[in-house]
From TrEMBL:
UniProt source species: Pseudomonas coronafaciens pv. striafaciens
One cellular-component annotation, GO: cytosol
Record-level GO BP terms: amino acid activation for nonribosomal peptide biosynthetic process; enterobactin biosynthetic process
Keyword Phosphoprotein belongs to the record: yes
Domain of life: Bacteria
Keywords associated with the record: Phosphopantetheine, Phosphoprotein
Carrier domain span: 146-221
PANTHER family membership: FATTY ACID SYNTHASE (PTHR45527:SF1), NONRIBOSOMAL PEPTIDE SYNTHETASE (PTHR45527)
One term of GO molecular function: 2,3-dihydroxybenzoate-serine ligase activity
Keyword Acetylation belongs to the record: no
One Pfam family linked to the record: AMP-binding
Family membership: Belongs to the ATP-dependent AMP-binding enzyme family.
Protein name: Carrier domain-containing protein
């Protein structure tokens, strides 16, 4: 509970929740999970430290760690890892039995793993990611199960041959066993040959386990380098390594335009079309790469096939002269030309269109496939086109010298040279450098990532002015870095902050033309390096610059290993949804572009439509004059333009901060400008709503009693209690407690079953001025004893049947059974308790604690009244409603059920049966409002989807379901959308106990269920009345839109703190700085 730095009130505080969330574009909040070692399982908030502390006290246990694992999607379970004391023998059954009396059922680990030692990081810290999945469990690691059936056995035999394995099991994973892209292609061929069916690469990537793939099959129709020398064209000509990877990708995603290189040039003036065509033909004749196609025989590696030199350049002429809509047609033609697919088997892989707009106005469109060209090659083509056109238009011969070697010669040389020690050294470097690197840069996106990568993209421009460029150059010089390295450091820092990752891998292309023989060749030479940047430990600008410099130089020293081999060495987790190793690029254009001159014509570049994005983000920078000019290429399947504009703004602010002070920590540089900061901190929290600030919760209830005394307040089984009768009985209990000396801020424990007695007990305690402390009868006796000892109640309310579960105490014991309540005083007027105000305690609820013991959260009347009034409005509660009360008092969902209903004059229906359970007796009670945990709702929806008629019957009168406690899964939301009755609405609320039940809310609409925004889960909405929500980073600075930040909660609902835990209060309840 911290001081609120964003509030104008000097005593305002906010609660540091430990929950992660992010802002959506419309200001709603998406819940992402826990930020610390506190987790939610089945809707229950659990401090892992409490379980670890209890486990550590078990006999024979030296050390214990507990984590929540989700090895199966949607099945989060607690797993305990235990180290035995020397000479001790641990038995899992005994550990479970020893823990059971001490912990609530939902806190018991589902699995226990006995280890000799806990895995540690190089810094000797616990490596939680390295803890193994439990064996012999529902989410166990792969175990050998023999193949079953004809298809599985036949497929297993093929795998064994390809992968050189003695045995393959039905649950084995092709890529985990050592499979890769080329082996996958050979697998397709052998399946075709031996099993007579056709598989695709997409099939293998989508179903890499043997049993799943068999199911698809069953239903499928000083230089030690040698010089580069010409090789005989009679021999087989292999692809270069880069070509081979691009060829594989082309097989995977068909005719994607992601690897097209389009260009457009407007030619104004007198054009010699014959000279232009001869020049283009000559370029094709000079460069074998432009005449190359690619063939594959059987299951062999693909080979190059080179067409004769006189094949010519494929140039199509289109005449638009005199047409009114010529410019619009030109745009359509340019788009079509850029996006039309290439046939790698038959070619051609370079083509063009000459569009005639007038006798003196032409547009030349040229498109090449990346497998035969790259950025350097485009400059070679430009230079040669100018020289050849000038010669041919003047009637001269070809002025260009013959090329000593061709691309196919380079490919053969590359495969011969990159072997032995050279290959081993570079493989080892990349394996060590990228070991353990994250497989995905989890940038916040505007839409969920598609299952298969969508290469659609757009461009956004960036200009860094002369002052900033000079400052960046000076900064680079001071630290012995290149301008590229400095920009790389800033780019890495930004990506890390946006993604919430301190380990970032960025790709960067290198020309890979270090030999003179290939400088004048057209072909695919470019290689891609992966630069890994460590952002942990909050480095300063100067520290990060040095690290990026070292990493970049080391990567460039090992640049000969083609990227596709780096992927095979590192073996990252593969997915069709994103590129391997990295998803963000930094490209630096520093090769000198050729100035094209075609006679005396005026030349102008033409923007070619149809941009693609091979990666999530690619920042392309170049130095032009005294400025840095850049473009940001982004995947439109993931990002909107406004998001990219913000990202570029953050990037420029980072660069400016680096220039201003290279000693500062980059993580502390504010990314937000004043407008975005004002919007996130102030405008999204503009929800001040009047409520009765001078009334306690029971005083508001008493007003409702006056308004509708005869209305039914409680309906439990066959019992019915009116508002007036409930008030009278609660008053009698309150006067009895006052007679025992109980008053404001005293704590009264209550251990009762759900029913009429519970409601009388709660209201009686509140009316006496005290705070109730719920004790769940189902808790272990040891846990109940701790809560009683910690809260030091002045009295204990219970029932005769529950007495034996409670320890013998030296304090007043009040039984709430029917016959016992008759012994209370006859006085039944509303008590008036002097000195009782809205800042006094209303209740203390115990939550899971990291110290090994639960923590008592102290909630005041002000927070409870604010919440209850707003919740009654939000839920639309009225006297016509019946609200089911099924949650234990120890879970603050019970507060959500009880008090808003009573303030609205609704009927409260306590139940000792969980909604939806078989055999539940309704006693004529039909609830209209339900409050469920997310886990309970998920279970019900799955059942109702199987039996829609049950859903219709159960929800016949239910108009509203409030779900809280965890994220609502997208899959269950879709099922709900199919079975929900038209009259039943769904609302999603979020809030920790420390902020008085719920503090954000959102109704879940059909559009929210069927849309694709964010993670696919339902959002938790916006702040409720008089609540402030801040999403902050580790330095308590506001995070940008879409970026995950820890939820801090301010406003009237923040708890007083934890009972008897002053140090923890100082850590978790902070002054509100906003």
């Amino acid at each position: 509970f911290l001081a609120d730095p964003f509030s104008n009130s000097p005593d305002a505080r906010m609660y540091k929740t430990g929950d992660l969330a992010r802002y959506m574009a419309d200001g709603r909040i998406e819940y992402l999970g826990r930020n610390d070692f506190q987790v939610k399982v089945r809707g229950f908030r659990i401090e892992l430290g409490e379980i670890e502390a209890r486990l550590g006290n078990c006999k024979g246990v030296k050390e214990a760690v507990v984590i929540a694992r989700e090895d199966n999607p949607g099945e989060k379970r607690l797993v305990a890892y235990v180290i035995a004391q020397p000479q001790a023998s641990l038995d899992v059954a005994r550990l479970r039995a020893e823990l059971a009396p001490q912990l609530a059922e939902y806190m018991l680990p589902s699995a226990f793993v006995l280890l000799d030692a806990l895995p540690l990081t190089p810094n000797r810290k616990l490596d939680r990611k390295a803890l193994p999945a439990p064996a012999n469990d529902a989410f166990a690691s792969r175990q050998h199960v023999a193949p079953q059936g004809t298809s599985e056995k036949a497929l297993a035999q093929i795998w064994q041959n390809l992968l050189n394995l003695e045995a393959v099991g039905r649950h084995d994973h092709f890529f985990e066993l050592g499979g890769h892209s080329l082996l996958a292609m050979r697998l397709i061929s052998q399946v075709r040959q031996r099993m007579g069916v056709e598989l695709s690469l997409a099939d293998i990537f989508a179903q890499p386990e043997l049993a799943a793939l068999a199911e698809v099959v069953a239903h499928a129709a000083g230089s030690s380098q040698q010089p580069i020398v010409p090789v005989s064209r009679d021999q087989a000509l292999p692809l270069s390594f880069a070509q081979q990877r691009l060829w594989f990708l082309a097989q995977l995603d068909g005719g994607s335009a992601a690897y097209h290189i389009p260009a457009g040039l407007r030619l104004r003036g007198s054009l010699d079309q014959d000279a232009l065509k001869r020049a283009l033909d000559r370029i094709v004749a000079r460069h074998e790469a432009l005449r190359t196609t690619f063939v594959q025989e059987q299951d062999q590696d693909p080979l190059q096939r080179i067409a004769p030199a006189d094949i010519g350049f494929s140039l199509q002429l289109q005449v638009l002269t005199g047409q009114a809509d010529a410019e619009q047609q030109l745009l359509a033609i340019a788009t079509e030309e850029a996006e039309e697919g290439f046939d790698l088997l038959n070619g051609p892989l370079v083509r063009g269109r000459l569009v005639c707009l007038a006798d003196d106005d032409h547009v030349l469109l040229v498109t090449m496939h990346h497998i035969v060209s790259d950025g350097w090659s485009a400059d070679v083509l430009t230079r040669e086109l100018g020289l050849l056109y000038a010669a041919f238009s003047a009637g001269a011969e070809d002025p260009l010298p013959a090329l000593p070697v061709q691309y196919a010669d380079y490919a053969v040389w590359q495969r011969n040279w990159l072997s032995g020690d050279v290959l081993q050294q570079q493989r080892q470097y990349w394996q060590q450098t990228l070991a353990g690197a994250p497989s995905l840069l989890t940038l916040p996106s505007d839409r969920p990532r598609p299952a298969q990568q969508d290469y659609s993209g757009k461009l956004l421009g960036l200009v860094l002015d002369a002052d900033l460029t000079r400052g960046l150059k000076a900064l680079s010089q001071r630290h012995g870095s290149s301008l590229f390295m400095t920009v790389m450091a800033a780019w890495a820092a930004l990506l890390g902050r946006l993604a919430g990752q301190d380990d970032v891998v960025i790709g960067t292309p290198v020309a890979n033309r270090m030999r003179a023989e290939v400088e004048d060749l057209i072909g695919f030479f470019v290689n891609t390096l992966a630069v890994r940047v460590d952002l942990s430990g909050t480095p300063s600008v100067q520290n990060l610059l040095q690290q990026v410099k070292q990493q970049t130089l080391a990567a460039q020293a090992n640049q000969d290993l083609p990227f596709e081999q780096v992927v095979e060495v590192v073996r990252p987790q593969r997915s069709l949804s994103h590129s391997p190793i990295f998803q963000a690029m930094l490209s630096w254009q520093n090769n000198e572009a050729s100035d094209l001159a075609l006679g005396d014509m005026a030349l102008q570049g033409v923007a070619v439509a149809g941009h693609t994005a091979k990666f999530d983000l690619t920042l392309d920078m170049t130095e032009v004059g005294d400025q840095l000019i850049g473009t940001l290429e982004y995947a439109t399947a993931l990002f909107d333009e406004r998001t990219m504009q913000r990202y570029l703004g953050y990037f420029q602010r980072l660069l400016e901060a680096m220039v201003a002070d290279d000693r500062q920590l980059l993580e502390q540089v504010p990314l937000l400008d004043a407008v975005e900061r004002q919007h996130l901190l102030v405008e999204l929290n503009a929800n001040n709503v009047p409520y009765p600030q001078d009334c306690t919760i029971h005083q508001l209830f008493e007003k409702k009693v006056q308004a509708q005394p005869d209305a039914i307040a409680v309906a439990f089984q066959a019992q019915r209690l009116s508002y007036a009768e409930l008030n009278r009985q609660a008053n009698r209990l309150a006067h009895h407690l006052i007679g025992l000396g109980i008053g404001p801020d005293d704590r009264v424990a209550i251990c009762v079953e759900r029913g009429v007695e519970m409601m009388i007990g709660l209201l009686g305690v509140l009316k006496a001025g005290a705070a109730y402390v719920p004790l769940d009868p189902a808790y272990p006796a040891e846990r109940l004893a701790y809560m009683i000892n910690d809260s030091q109640p002045t009295a204990l309310l219970t029932q005769r049947d529950l007495q034996k579960r409670l320890p013998t105490l030296a304090l007043p014991l009040v039984l709430l059974d029917d016959d016992q309540r008759n012994t209370f005083t006859e006085r039944d007027d509303n008590p008036v308790v002097e000195a009782l105000g809205v800042r006094n305690l209303a209740y203390v609820i115990y939550t899971s604690g990291s110290t090994g013991n639960p923590k008592g959260v102290m909630i005041e009347h002000r927070g409870l009244v604010n919440y209850s009034v707003d919740a009654a409005r939000l839920f639309g509660l009225s006297p016509a409603d019946t609200v089911l009360q099924q949650n234990t008092l120890n879970f603050d969902l019970s507060v959500e059920e009880i008090f808003p209903a009573l303030l609205a004059g609704a009927t409260l229906a306590p139940s000792r049966e969980i909604f939806g359970s078989e055999g539940t007796q309704t006693y004529g009670i039909q609830p209209t409002v339900l409050h469920l945990t997310a886990a309970h709702w998920h279970t019900l929806v799955a059942e109702w989807h199987k039996q829609p008629e049950v859903a219709a019957q159960r929800l016949q009168q239910v108009r509203l379901i409030n779900v809280t406690g965890d994220a609502l899964s997208a899959q269950k939301l879709r099922l709900w959308d199919e079975v929900r009755p038209a009259h039943t609405r769904l609302i999603n609320t979020y809030g920790p106990t420390e902020a008085t039940v719920s503090c954000t809310a959102a109704y879940v609409s059909h559009d929210a269920v069927t849309g694709s925004e964010g993670s696919g889960n339902a959002t938790i909405g916006k702040p409720m009345a008089n609540t402030r929500i801040y999403l902050l980073d580790a330095h308590q600075q506001p995070v940008p839109y879409g970026v995950a930040g820890e939820i801090f909660i301010g406003g009237d609902g923040v708890a007083r703190g934890y009972l008897n835990l002053a140090e923890v209060n100082a850590e978790r309840f902070l002054a509100d700085p906003f």
